[in-house]
């Protein structure tokens, strides 16, 4: 599998380099230095603010106990799969010139709000909503994993809230922060739909959007190739520089933690942080759901919508199954490998997508099928399924690798002594133990595919349209009610899949024992 992924990436590299060598100079121009600067700036701001918000929110959730806490934690956990396009549209519904807050200000004070939602502020705000909630969920797992003996010792010493954070909490968090920061930076650096919708023009046009514009709007393959190679080089350098950092926690369970409630100012601050974070994360999603009701009848009567739903569902299902199969092969092979080099190669293959982001990957595929003389209509579905599976593979490996490693450590000798075939070993021993995690992988992969715009943006046609592409086209045609309804339905499908699939696989695992 690692060789297959490496061969695929090498082939795409070859198609990009071949196009760069044979492409005549284009007429379009781009300030590459400024593109690198603005892409890095928005990613750096998004990363720093997301970590600050994530630490504060994790600290508040770790201390407070209230009815609905589990639901709220699950809501923040869903941030990783919430489509960025939906969040961006929700921000427009709340903070935009015709949004909720502007309408409320007009009603109360007869003065509409004119907030700078388009541009750098809007892009960073959308990333903060998604990545801040994601960081909080990961860091909360670190705080919940602090040994109870250490907490009891701290309680016996009557540590005040600040001292407890410095002495107990911070050591548990700091090892995760560099790796988490690298992931958030890469996610923001390669962000496409959020920048496309909220960038507001060339002033906040990132490398990803510039590649799309060069190919789709100007058909300047020379410029697109140059930008793609720059983005690949930067992302690869970041991955190599952070490869030795501690991995993030992959578990989303809710372990029982001893109650240690702070009092006084700290408790008021915790409730304040929780209220602001909940309002900031939930209000755009709530706005999407409410605004989506207004155009429901019109959208449901459109044949194009149902075609997009069918296309999104089958592509999401195919991508999820392919991602799960690739992750199972890579995780099982990595766990059974005795050579350190083999383990590294099998693990690294899953993270190829982080080095070759969606638009760059789709550009390579676009150039490849063009050179082979294959019609984009024919190759589009295959390319989108493979690309979306690779998009999910890093998260799938982060979820499945730890349980496979634990099985190899704890039951490896027993498995070898039974001399089971590979299929019997997987079905009888490994699958019952990793079925819940497999359900989570399927949910993550399906949701990522459902909300992805990076690849379909280049391969989409009139007959090959997914829900994100249909939504972008509705926004471009100023059919805001249609776009709101599509965004609401995408949100419902995403949350339903994220909640239902892990539970279904968990029940299947329990029934099989």
Features:
single chain, 513 residues, mainly alpha, MetI-like fold
Q: What number of structural domains do the residues give?
A: 1
Low-confidence stretches: 249-257
- Rounded Rg: 23 Å
CATH architecture name: Orthogonal Bundle
Morphology call = globular
Helical residues, percent: over 70%
CATH third-tier fold name: MetI-like fold
Q: Going by CATH, what is the homologous superfamily?
A: MetI-like
What about the largest sheet? none
Q: What's the level 1 CATH class?
A: Mainly Alpha
State the gist of this model.
The chain has 513 residues and is mainly alpha-helical. 78% of the residues lie in helices and 0% in strands.
Tell me what the structure shows.
With 513 residues, this protein is mainly alpha-helical. Helices cover 78% and strands 0% of the residues. Helix 1 (2-22) crosses helix 16 and helix 11 (207-217) runs antiparallel to helix 12 (221-242). The model is unreliable at 249-257 (pLDDT under 50).
What layout of secondary structure does this protein have?
Blueprint: H1 2-22, H2 32-63, H3 69-77, H4 84-95, H5 100-109, H6 120-144, H7 148-156, H8 161-174, H9 177-189, H10 193-198, H11 207-217, H12 221-242, H13 265-294, H14 296-300, H15 303-336, H16 340-349, H17 352-355, H18 358-372, H19 376-418, H20 422-451, H21 456-459, H22 467-476, H23 480-511
Helix pairs in contact: 1-12, 1-16, 1-18, 2-6, 2-9, 2-13, 4-6, 4-13, 4-23, 6-9, 9-12, 11-12, 11-18, 13-23, 15-16, 15-19, 15-20, 18-19, 19-20, 20-23, 22-23
């Amino acid at each position: 599998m690692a060789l297959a992924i490496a061969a695929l990436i090498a082939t795409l590299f070859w198609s990009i380099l071949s196009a760069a060598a044979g492409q005549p100079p284009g007429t379009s121009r781009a300030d590459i230095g400024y593109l690198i600067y603005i892409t890095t700036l928005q990613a750096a701001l998004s990363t720093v603010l997301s970590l600050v918000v994530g630490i504060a929110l994790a600290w508040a959730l770790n201390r407070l106990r209230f009815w609905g806490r589990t639901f709220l934690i699950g809501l923040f956990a869903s941030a990783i799969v919430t489509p960025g396009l939906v969040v961006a549209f929700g921000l427009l519904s709340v903070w935009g010139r015709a949004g909720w807050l502007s309408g409320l200000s007009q009603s109360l004070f007869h003065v509409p709000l004119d907030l700078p939602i388009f541009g750098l502020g809007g892009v960073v705000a959308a990333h903060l909503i998604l990545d801040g909630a994601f960081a909080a969920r990961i860091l909360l797992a670190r705080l919940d994993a602090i040994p109870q003996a250490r907490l009891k010792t701290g309680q016996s010493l009557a540590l005040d809230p600040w001292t407890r954070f410095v002495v107990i909490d911070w050591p548990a968090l700091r090892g995760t922060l560099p790796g988490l920061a690298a992931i958030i930076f890469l996610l923001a650096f390669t962000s496409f739909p959020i920048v496309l919708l909220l960038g507001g023009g060339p002033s906040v046009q990132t490398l990803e959007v510039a590649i799309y514009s060069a190919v789709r709007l100007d058909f300047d393959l020379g410029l697109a190739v140059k930008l793609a190679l720059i983005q690949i080089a930067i992302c690869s350098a970041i991955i190599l520089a952070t490869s030795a950092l501690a991995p993030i926690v992959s578990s989303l369970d809710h372990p029982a933690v001893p109650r240690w409630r702070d009092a006084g100012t700290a408790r008021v601050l915790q409730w304040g942080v929780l209220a602001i974070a909940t309002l900031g994360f939930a209000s755009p999603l709530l706005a999407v759901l409410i605004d989506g009701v207004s155009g429901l009848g019109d959208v449901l009567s459109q044949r194009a919508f149902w075609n997009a739903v069918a296309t999104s569902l089958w592509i999401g299902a195919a991508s999820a199954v392919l991602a799960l199969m690739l992750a199972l092969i890579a995780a099982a092979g990595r766990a059974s490998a005795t050579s350190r080099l083999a383990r590294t190669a099998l693990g690294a293959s899953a993270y190829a997508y982080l080095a070759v982001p969606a638009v760059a990957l789709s550009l390579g595929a676009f150039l490849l099928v063009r050179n082979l003389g294959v019609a984009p209509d024919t190759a589009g579905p295959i390319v989108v399924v493979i690309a979306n599976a690779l998009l999910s593979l890093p998260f799938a490996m982060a979820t499945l690798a730890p349980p496979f490693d634990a099985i190899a450590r704890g039951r490896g000798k027993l498995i070898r002594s039974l001399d089971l075939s590979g299929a019997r070993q997987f079905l009888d021993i490994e699958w019952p133990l990793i079925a819940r995690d497999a359900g989570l992988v399927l949910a993550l992969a399906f949701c990522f595919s459902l909300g992805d715009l990076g690849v379909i943006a280049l391969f989409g046609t009139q007959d090959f349209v997914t829900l994100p592409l249909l939504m972008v086209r509705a926004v471009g045609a100023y059919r805001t009610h249609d776009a709101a309804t599509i965004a609401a339905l995408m949100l419902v499908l995403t949350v339903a899949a994220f909640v239902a699939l892990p539970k279904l696989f968990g029940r299947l695992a329990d029934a099989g024992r």
